[in-house]
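Notes on consecutive records. When two proteins share a document, each keeps its own sequence and its own token line. Never mix them. Below: protein one.
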Amino acid sequence: MKRVFLLIAVFMLAKAGFSQDFHFSMFNENPLNINPALTGAFPGDHRMIVNYKNQWQSISDPFRTYSGSYDAGLFKKDAESGYLSAGIQFLNDVAGTSEFTTTKFDVSLAYHVVLGYTSTLSAGISGGFCQRSLNSSALYWDNQYDGNGGFDQTVSSGETSTFENFGYSDFSAGLMYSFATEESSMASNDGIKFNIGFASYHINQPKLTFANVDTEQLFAKYMVHARGQFGIFSSNTAVVAQGMFANQGPAREIVAGVGLRFMLTEQSHYTGFMKESALTIGAAYRVGDAIIPQLMLEIANFAIGIGYDVNTSGLNVASNSKGGTEIFLRYINPSPFRYQNKSFNKSFF
């Protein structure tokens, strides 16, 4: 009985989680996790982003995901035909009652080549270390029940199987093409700009061994992503669109979204007290899983956004259609509204 429970508690978690990745619904605001070629691909010199997601709290212990990243263009101000960029990222995911934890640290490099006044080709690589662990003391075992409907977690489980932490190296690579019309900029909603990219994660497909009872291979993950902004003539409004397709072993994810971006204010020319700001309102759909309303406010160097997953899958019976809350905070220096150092900045978001 103990062994059966062990297999149910661990193997089902392993099969569902070991070979697949966690994700953010607002994937464009977690750029280093969708394509290393996005390292340094923004209108500014330095960028910091913090992400947080709390998922399925209405069902049981929630799944909590945290991410923090920093990236920068190296010698970007002096670049003419292209520039090198570097970034670092930390990710932490804690899942369910067993506190199945994934902790990852990555370093990424990318190079951005100017193809013309309005086009840029980017290539990036990343590598790092990932550790996985499980809190076996949080699990319930059959001999901790007294047979009369009572439960005493202080009673020894009697289990001898060990749940040892393990780690592995992980490598990824990607390409991206970006385009913008000459009038495009962050400070206006004129013109058109878009990017499209492809990335492969877990290229080395590392072996994952847990509790010395099973070995899984982490599937390579292939991602295609696109993002566009299309200005509405003679207005302060633009249509924004985004999409992402990911395939990892037997798992597939498709997300598509659309929204409107409104320029709210411009910076005051004399006092500087009034800062540029923009508001984006939209929604996305993860095929077969969730509708995701989203809101983002940009003020000068800062941006803050929030999204909420509303379950549409069979899980909504248990979750009451409540999926998860996701927020992010972004800081770019100098302000992306005024950063027009080089033409290739026009094609970046």
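Protein two starts on the next line and is unrelated to protein one.
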Amino acid sequence: MISRRSLLKNLSAGFGYLAFASLAARQAAAEDKPTNPLAARKPHFAPRAKRVIFLCMSGGPSHVDTFDYKPQLAIDDGKQARYGGRLLKSPWEFRQRGSSGLWISDLFPSVAKHADDLCLIRSMNCDQPVHTGAITQMHTGTAQFIRPSLGAWTLYGLGTENDDLPGFVSISPPSGNAGVYGSAFLPAIYGGTKVGRGGRAARFAQMQPSESVPDLKSEHQSRVAQRKQLDFVQSLNREHLARQEYSPEIEGVIESYELAFRMQDAMPDVMNLSGESRETLELYGAADGPTASFGKQCLLARRLAEAGVRFVEI
């Protein structure tokens, strides 16, 4: 028979052990945590994909004209809609494609040949009536509040595979809507690096094969002088950070400056398309013609992904 005193004594010792084990586990986790916020991390589950290329083609054909087959819409054609206006059926026919029987309209005959390689999510919905709000909601989950974007969350969770390149690159993002590639309340280092400008697609069509990011390299200072200047600025930033004790904004600035310096060597090589064969350019539609702009962006996205960039958006 155990006395009350002995029971309480044993329990208190047990709680002490649990507390020690918890502290030890936290210390071990802290020691294993990388000091570089962009360092690659192990996911919770075995990944089937290492990188993401996200094609955001807003303003294209409607979902009911491409992949979202709605036979009832043809029946209700011309009827009054709930919020005004009249319903309009798709002018294109839908057919089941491939062994999977995926419904794809006649608008995309070439895409239809790859139906068995596609995963189509039909459960998406949106309550925004205009493009700007809808695009923000698609990237962040909400149009009312400031939230991290898809790429920022991906980079925050998995880190990058190349310390000399941004982990998240947004190619020609929409103008005036930085939230689609922003980090919101996450540290600034997880925000996307913008390449090109939204609304200027012709810019990529006219881009020379060896052209890189504008203003990436200084025309007025040598690399050694830049390094000295950066070290001085970073020393001031670190002093300010030490006084603040905790400031994600300052930490993000420090990491961004260092990344920008390293990008001077790595980024031009990735963006240089002169080494691509004529056959590859034609496969991407990047050689010439109306598809040259988008084709070059797709080719650049592939090169960035191959170089270790975790999330690329076009």
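For the record: Residues 4-32 form the longest helix (29 residues).
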